[in-house]
Amino acid sequence: MKRVSRDIVYTEHSRFNAPSLFVEPGEVFQAETELCSGAWLRSVEDRWSPEKSTGPNPAVCIGVQGAVPGQVLGVKIHEIVPDDVGYTGFAPGNNPFPDWIRRQEWGIVTKTVAIRDDFVEWSAQLKLPTKPMLGVVGVAPAREVYSNAWPGKHGGNMDAQEVAAGATVYLPVNVPGALLHVGDMHAIQGDGEITCGGGIECRGVATLSVELLPKPTRMMWPRIVNATHLMTIGCARPAEDAFRIAVEQLIYWLADAYEMDEREAFLLLGQVLEARCTQFVDPLYTYVAKIRREYLPAGLRF
Q: I need a labelling partner for 201 at 20 to 30 A (CA). Which of 17, 184, 186, 194 fits?
């Protein structure tokens, strides 16, 4: 199985990034992911400090044979295996919450934890079951160069817990080869990514494969599919705009692929929509909108 090493990483999504690996559609491969702030974390005794950071969110870059603009790249996540150590933290003013969390006298607050046997060892008394996810899955934009701190139409730093094993992330292809960027693994993350420390940040290995599909006319933002849901992503500030984008894109999907009248799709989502803001801390907030597949005809339509 091919494997892309974390020895070469990029902190921007860019058409100028040279892929470290080329893969064929349908080929299973592995991607080593780097820690969101660089390679400093080696043991539970290590603590983050600003001078150690080489971020944001270093990502490996993979080229896809045959990918051209006008297609959609489907990135199937087969497995995510976190490393055995991770960390979380927050800094004054670097989170979306009231002044008591921003107090300067607290300084930077961090916590380093062991990850063992599918649990995060939060303390001697408390172990959290791991729910590994990839914070960054994106493609190169056509013209822009985006920091890996940013989410958007290209995917990028969406920080959605649904980007996990068993899911497929669909991204519009903007440049030849697509230039898939992968990084920012979390062993677990709560809704909102409220501390700006990303849940439990860690290194790890993701097992992936890709497919190429024709791009639906009204697909402008990432889509995600897993065994239970169809999902759309919206990224914006304020959060209300991200929510509107995600819902609008889900209505378009239901109307175009499942032949629903848009009014009917809107009414249906009024009863069964699931939605939330997955992160409030990046330059743009990320909202995910979902519908359970049991409410739709059998089989995935795209």
A: 17
